[in-house]
Amino acid sequence: TFHGSGFGKGLNASRMPIYTLFIVNKAGGLIYHKNFSTKARSINANECLYMASVFHGLFLNASSLSPLKSYPGAPPQGIESILTENFKLECLRTLTGVKFFITANPDADYLEELLNDIYVIYSDYVLKDPFYVVEMPIRLQKFDQKISAQIYDTSHRADSKSPSMRKH
Amino acid sequence: QGAEKIMTTIYTIYVYNREGTCLFLRKYNGDSKQNPKEIEIEKKNMFGTLFTLKTFVNAITPKTMDEWEKEPISYFQTSQYQLHYLETASGLRFAVSTPPDAPNMGRVLNRLYKLYVDYVVRNPCYTLGSEIVLPGFVQRVETYVKELRNK
Fold it and tell me: Does an H or E element contain A55, and which?
């Protein structure tokens, strides 16, 4: 469900440049997933879990294929972004192994900053919740709300920066 | 379209056919000694990664691709390198790894494909699907890589 009213009059769900957010735990299991745009592919829950794990594997593979040698004990330098003609994916891997990745419009250039903001929200509303067990799926309403607000805020700011986007 | 000079270092070039056989693998970033077994593993690993990447992208893309549409993946990036990708309609895959700050490599990949068509496919001595050792192709690719580095 989308928070329609009050979040930028020109930016409804079909014009949202940010598509989906995934959060994957250290072991590669999906712990959070949310669509923000009607353009985002609607995947069923099982496929979602599967895809998150596939990404985790891809991430590690990319790290081992690096042409540069990394020193032993270094954190895996995995995929940071993927660019295709239809979308861009950006990934943030925290020092504890949690991966946040987000799909968006191919010319979104604010994704790294957005992921850092999301990480802060995760720290505040998930990790600091005394009832939350780490690495488990996130089912916290406050987190949901804050994430939606952050996404709408960022894409609204991005939208107002480029007037050409209004012409759609 | 203005012909701006692309300038970039290239680490490695991989070429695979649609069955997954590695036709060509050359490293251009100094001599990191690798024994043949390690190289074989790398060839398989890279193909597996490219294949998985394609599956993943197809599952997650907001727009469903029709079979005849051009392969949409441009590149993926880690903090240490970028892997640029071109897949042709015949299932031929070119992958080029560069430092993370490389420019758009579309033209480079297309140029490599053209070199492949001109100096490999059109060579009567070459069997499709076998490893490329033809000096004509290998030399020209090496020259091109040097050209990109020094321009």
Answer: helix A45-64
